[in-house]
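Technical note accompanying the year-one report. For the benefit of new consortium partners, we illustrate the data format agreed upon in the data management plan: each record pairs a sequence with a structure-token string. No post-processing was applied to the example shown here.
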Amino acid sequence: MTKIKFVALFSCLMLILLTACNTNEKSSIKLAEVTRSLFYAPQYVALEKGFFEEENLDVELQTTWGGDKTMTALLSDGADIALVGSETSIYVYTQNSKDYAVNFANLTQTDGTFLVAKEEHPEFKWKDLNDSIFLGQRKGGMPQMVGEFVLKKNNIDPHNDLELLQNVDFANIPGAFVSGDAEYVQLFEPTASVFEKEGKGHIIASFGEESGNVPYTGFMAKQSYLKENKDEAKRFTRAIYKAQQWVEENSAEEIAKVIQPYFEDTELDILTTSIQRYKDQDSFATNPSLKEEDWENLKEIMNEAGELKEDVPYDELVNTELAEEVANE
């Protein structure tokens, strides 16, 4: 073999090896979650079961505590991907943001709150809320919009037929319910089950069951990130899909055991009960693809709440390409 041919062959081999090495390099992703919630169980499963590591991803999770703060982190590059309510992407889009956030993987497909009452209501009907004091969630957020949507669906005007309280911060709602005059409150798990176990309240209805399928919480990233980091985003989506399938196929108790490190102050039986509630009402999406009919339901809920300033087409803010690709592999 001539020296020139040898050098050429050697160069080709080195190029192949370098390409393979680059493919195997671990990518880092900064992930911001809007709050620490049992509702996001599949995400914690993906972390604890090593599904991100299998995709050669080093995911750094931070809890940003609130939709506004989460979106600020995403838009300012403090996070690459955000787990937050899909309504926030609409708010950003309608502010004429140039590099707006796009929903590319859905995580939860129903509302995650429950109606909790101070007294037992063995034969509860939604009309029982008339003339009551109801402690709701923050105005403009998905829990509150869904809450009002469900009340209206049951012929209750939330601003005239009852006393609706919306002036309490999210973190302080449980304490305000216990110490205040409110007869009803809208709570997430595991707080709702903890209250029931401690005799502080009784779960009497599900807002998730009443409101139907909606892209309640999902993963989004800026347009520029998805364009420049398509491979990383696809591997991220594949890890989430693996976790969604694992959650679907395993018991609530097994899921609780896996994610307990993220909820050290909550007993295993409460975690198990809460997860089972969510599984029973199909809250956890089994596929990361965000359906158009669910998006339309989201817009209807926002419109009923007076928060949809303009129509936002599904094709503008939803990208199902990655989700469909990993689901069809």
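Partners are asked to follow this layout when depositing records. Confidence is low (pLDDT under 50) at residues 3-23.
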